[in-house]
From TrEMBL:
Pfam families: 3HCDH, 3HCDH_N, ECH_1. It is found in: Peroxisome. This is Peroxisomal bifunctional enzyme. It catalyses: (2E)-hexadecenedioyl-CoA + H2O = (3S)-hydroxyhexadecanedioyl-CoA; a (3S)-3-hydroxyacyl-CoA + NAD(+) = a 3-oxoacyl-CoA + NADH + H(+); a 4-saturated-(3S)-3-hydroxyacyl-CoA = a (3E)-enoyl-CoA + H2O; (3E)-hexenoyl-CoA = (2E)-hexenoyl-CoA. Keywords: Fatty acid metabolism, Isomerase, Lipid metabolism, Lyase, Multifunctional enzyme, NAD, Oxidoreductase, Peroxisome. Pathway: Lipid metabolism; fatty acid beta-oxidation. InterPro entries: 3-OHacyl-CoA_DH_NAD-bd, 3HC_DH_C, 6-PGluconate_DH-like_C_sf, ClpP/crotonase-like_dom_sf, Enoyl-CoA_hyd/isom_CS, Enoyl-CoA_hydra/iso, NAD(P)-bd_dom_sf. Monomer.
Amino acid sequence: MAATRRLVNTVAVITINHPPVNALSSSVRHALVEEFGKASKDPTVEAIVLNGSNGKFSAGADIREFGTSAIKTVSLEDINGTIEASQKPVVAAIEGIALGGGLELALACHYRVADIQSRVGLPEVLIGILPAAGGTQRLPRLIGIPAALDVIVRGRHIPATEALNLGIVDEVVQGSAVDAAIQLAQKVIGLPLNKRRLSTLRISSNLNMEDFLDTTVEKTKKQFRGAQAPMACIEAVRASVLLPYHRGVEKERQLFLSLWATGQPQAQQYAFFSEREAAKWSHPSGARWYSEEPKLVRTAAVIGLGTMGRGIVISLSKANIPVIAIEQDAYQLEMGKKAVNSLLEREAEKLKQQGFSPGSKLASVHFTLAFGELQDVDLVIEAVYENMELKKEIFRKLSSVCKSNAFLCTNTSGLNIDEIASVTDRPNQVIGTHFFSPANIMKLLEVVRGQQTSLTTIATAMNLGKILGKVTVLVGNCPLFVGNRMLGPYLEQASYLLEEGCYPETVDRAMEEFGFAMGPFRMMDLAGLDVGWRSRTEKGLTGANVPQGTPARKRLGNRYSPLADLLCESGRFGQKTGKGWYQYEKPGGRTARPDPWVKDFLQKYRKTHQIKQQPSNQEQIVERCVYALANEGFRILEDGIASCPEDIDVIYNNGYGWPKYRGGPMYYASFVGLPKVFNTLEKYYKANADVPSMKPAFLLKKLAAVGGPPIKEWRLQVGKPVNKL
Ligand SMILES: CCCCCCC/C=C/C(=O)SCCNC(=O)CCNC(=O)[C@H](O)C(C)(C)COP(=O)(O)OP(=O)(O)OC[C@H]1O[C@@H](n2cnc3c(N)ncnc32)[C@H](O)[C@@H]1OP(=O)(O)O
């Protein structure tokens, strides 16, 4: 049964029963109508409590039903209307989660009791829609416009104690929310319900509402560039101010349908399910996530307390895993310790505000210089800077110090995992964990399997990612793995665009208007131009090791842009030096301003090399950069480095500032149409045979030839993930 009913004295307890998260599917909605109908008619019932099975109230509407006919049967808003109109008091007992339609359902109840561990929220905006079961009309009437906008537009999960302060719930309890709800229901039997029916309340405020909403629109436009859902949320809330409830709900529905027509919800819902699929990893051997048991990580160590190491330590501590943090000398250790402790203090403060004792949620961090102290840890994450020799030296040491079943992880953004593993006594227990900076904030974790990495090691690292709250994707080992490897052709095109007449700000604007959090040049300035320069120097692409007589703009017969090298030779490393592709207010400054020096430099460069000026327009800039990115994604699939296009999209959505409302580079290619992507690349490559990265990938050609099937059918063409490198 999708919902059940039991009687406790004169209180009917109706329980939603649709594992795993009690999504409000069509069958649940039908069952709710039936059970509420029976409870209303039953003369022995004086009050009703609504809860969800397995400690979860509800995760909201069943997202898989959107776009199908199932969503049209029994509207959730109608159910909410019936509940609110009930003559018998209805109390929601919120355990675990009440999200989206789940919270909308609870808002239709006359009272809400929440367990202290629960979270509530209206996260619809994160999947490209708006709360369209009355949520945008009831919540503002309950907590006022500013607070409701914050909840609806940001879509964040709100801890129970904050929900109590905001007035979303009436009571927060430490024990059973259902028992407390039954008690409350018994207490309120016979009391008037009018003031508890949110749809009947008036919104009162001292604010000049129109001005406030207009300012919010402007701020939101800037913050969520190109995303339609946040704007629709504001318009729906505006309707709650201007219109009576029933007309506000009509507006809400109309906005929902307009959003659907933009295609953004479909992309964001694809992104949502792709993230869940990424956790269900597969291995070239045929093993899958369910066939391997992860080992428990009770204690961990982090080597290196630079920016990455600090973030990793915080993540582990927040996941309640005690950490030993190691540095190479007393000074670095002290610096790292100060930084980590100050971040931990902030976390402790947040926990206190949520009503938790920090000691119960944050594990201890022990700082030391002594490797010997690592003998008992279950897992080590090495997070020193990108230098193969240094990493090998550390892994040799770890081999001799750590217990034989300890897992050894390397945090690298592209170095060869097999080479690092080869110096250890346990290559099967070595794995790459590529965190993104700042590691305590960024959601993505690329887990990189080496040739010899065992399935248990993979299962343990993937599970650790989940425990740390990361979106974790398993990838194969190749230079730069998935995300950074795809950046190569993307940044290459960005540089060529400058050579041909664009400026950093033109290219960045085009990519930011496309939706990227940051254009390629601002991104390079942030990351530091010296990092790539060092790597190109090591590879002999620039610097003293370039063979005499090599043309400035060619390497190994292919086109090469030395622009970034020339900037570095002038001491322009990006934000850290206050100058890079842009100028900044000071070294370490963050406000990028176009730099006349760069303009002049580019003009001279083009003249010196007699490059014909053909500045591309916005559409051409986006096409060249994004198609180059996706093309490399197809190669990565061919090579068996990513096991499916969804994994690549998850990486880009969560680690590279790709706009989620465009699904990811592979989804976007599919949305544009693979034949179009193929033809554009083919045309470019025919005219520029010295740019091999733009040669359409074989897999793209194959899929385009059959008309570009939907992305979920690509797997059939890709075959099993076999590392072909
Ligand atoms: C004109 C038409 C009007 C329509 C009006 C509709 C108005 C209401 C709209 C909504 O309610 S939209 C949904 C809003 N809710 C959400 O966005 C919540 C999404 N879910 C989550 O954030 C998380 O899943 C969770 C609930 C916090 C649980 O996280 P956890 O890490 O514990 O588990 P997951 O692996 O994420 O999920 C488990 C399992 O459940 C599936 N799932 C989760 N939520 C939904 C859902 N709302 N609908 C359908 N399926 C859901 C998820 O995909 C996982 O599935 P499997 O991978 O196990 O198959």
